[in-house]
């Protein structure tokens, strides 16, 4: 059964991670909040989802959440840092 493409990024606060379900798999970004900053420590996509844009969609959701909460981002994860360098429209969110 095919799902729509507008899956929602959710904030799983119990696990301190943002999640995007794609079919029966999950792309996630581990974070910790530190005052008004959000440190992204790790972004993980299952091997079968790599190269599909799933992690990028996840990152867009993380940026939306940070912006709505007035948080700045510290991208410790190399993927998150590279993604932010490639998506300059989110430069205002860099701590």
Automatic annotation (TrEMBL):
InterPro entries to which the protein is assigned, alphabetical: Acyl_CoA_acyltransferase, Gcn5-rel_NAT, GNAT_YJDJ
TM regions (residue ranges): none
Residue ranges of domain N-acetyltransferase in the record: 10-95
Pfam families: Acetyltransf_CG
Highest taxon above the source species: Bacteria
Protein name: GNAT family acetyltransferase
Source organism (scientific name): Azospirillum picis
